[in-house]
């Protein structure tokens, strides 16, 4: 993993296919106890959005690597008083060994990374959520003992960060990816084209507004909230439009007999997913959530390697 030392992760596409597989392999080894690594470094967490899993999983992962975290909540730093982002980036780059940033605009993340001479990790932006997809792919690998040749169907808001990162991640590991979304909410066309280029015709990259067709024989059904952070005012208006895309027993019955269900959480039960499905025998949501810690531990160990 020498090639990842000191690098940023702003998008899944920042990794090569080989590097992605290496991170996932290391995550599985760390989870099983086959490997134990120590990275006595300091990770900063700069989160402008609410977080449970991302904040706690990064914190525990860093602790288990023998390192420390510093919570850099923007509301208690000079960023909240108007200090230019580039100035903050220059200074924190001299104090910390790495920083994970959770913010709205991808361009702010990219600006920070261009001025901070330390690894910068995308802990979620409106455009992408790469660390979540590392955990998602790890969960699929654990469940099926493979990823290549499987089909993942994402149902819901095609314009959100999960749809974007799943498009890239699935294409990279040779999985078919179907995005089932109302026609008013298509994914970013640049990311769709990027995923198609990665897939190179070897796997499907399909965008559709037909949820029943999209889930046919799918191995993984995936959903997320219908209104992401910052879109709460639209939530009630979106419900009637998105209801046909709800992950429920009827849609699940059309998928592969061994299909699993994933949700990145938090979930609005009986909206994007029914309570029965998220608590059902096909759900792997809690394994998926646990794997955030293991996947991010592997990522941190790789970026902060002393080897």
What does this entry look like structurally?
- There is one protein chain.
- The protein is α/β, with parallel strands linked by helices and 307 residues long.
- Helices cover 41% and strands 13% of the residues.
- Helix 1 crosses helix 5, helix 1 (17-32) packs across helix 12 and helix 5 packs across helix 6.
- The longest helix is centred in the C-terminal third of the chain and has 19 residues, at 285-303.
- The mean pLDDT is 96.
- Residues 149-302 form the Aspartate/ornithine carbamoyltransferase Asp/Orn-binding domain.
- It catalyses: carbamoyl phosphate + L-ornithine = L-citrulline + phosphate + H(+).
- Its main location: cytoplasm.
- InterPro entries: Asp/Orn_carbamoyltranf_P-bd (IPR006132), Asp/Orn_carbamoylTrfase (IPR006130), Asp/Orn_carbamoylTrfase_sf (IPR036901), Asp_carbamoyltransf_Asp/Orn-bd (IPR006131), Orn/put_carbamltrans (IPR002292), OTCase_ArgI (IPR024904).
CATH architecture designation of the largest domain? 3-Layer(aba) Sandwich
* CATH fold call of the largest domain: Rossmann fold
Principal-axis shape equals globular
Task: Assign the CATH superfamily of the largest domain.
Answer: Aspartate/ornithine carbamoyltransferase
> Order of helices and strands, N to C?
HEHEHEHEHEHEHEHEHHEHH
CATH class of the largest domain: Alpha Beta
Give keywords.
307 residues, alpha/beta, Rossmann fold, 2 domains, 5-stranded parallel sheet, 4-stranded parallel sheet, 12 helices, 41% helix, globular
Q: How do you describe this structure in short?
A:
This protein has 307 residues and is an alpha/beta fold.
């Amino acid at each position: 993993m020498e090639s990842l030392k000191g690098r940023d992760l702003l998008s899944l596409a920042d990794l090569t296919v080989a590097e992605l597989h290496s991170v996932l392999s290391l995550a599985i080894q760390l989870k099983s106890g086959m490997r134990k690594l120590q990275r006595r470094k300091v990770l900063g967490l700069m989160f402008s959005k609410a977080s449970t899993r991302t904040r706690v999983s990064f914190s525990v992962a860093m602790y288990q690597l023998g390192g420390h975290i510093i919570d850099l909540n923007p509301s208690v730093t000079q960023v909240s008083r108007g200090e230019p982002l580039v100035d903050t980036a220059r200074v924190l780059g001299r104090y910390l060994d790495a920083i994970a940033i959770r913010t709205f605009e991808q361009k702010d993340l990219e600006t920070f990374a261009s001025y901070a001479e330390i690894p910068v990790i995308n802990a979620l932006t409106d455009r992408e959520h790469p660390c979540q997809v590392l955990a998602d792919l790890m969960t699929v690998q654990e469940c099926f003992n493979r990823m290549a040749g499987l089909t993942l169907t994402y149902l819901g808001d095609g314009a959100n960060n999960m749809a974007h990162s799943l498009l890239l991640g699935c294409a990279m590991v040779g999985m078919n990816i179907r995005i089932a979304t109302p026609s008013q909410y298509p994914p970013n066309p640049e990311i769709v084209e990027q995923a198609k280029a990665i897939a190179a015709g070897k796997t499907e990259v399909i965008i559709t507004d037909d949820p029943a067709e999209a889930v046919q024989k799918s191995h993984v059904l995936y959903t997320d909230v219908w209104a992401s952070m910052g879109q709460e005012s639209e939530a009630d208006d979106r419900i009637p439009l998105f209801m046909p895309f709800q992950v429920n027993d009827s849609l699940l019955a059309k998928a592969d007999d061994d299909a699993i269900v994933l949700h990145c959480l938090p979930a609005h039960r009986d909206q994007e997913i029914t309570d029965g499905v998220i608590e059902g025998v096909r759900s792997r949501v809690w394994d998926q959530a646990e794997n955030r810690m293991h996947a991010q531990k592997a990522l941190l160990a790789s970026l902060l390697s002393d080897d």
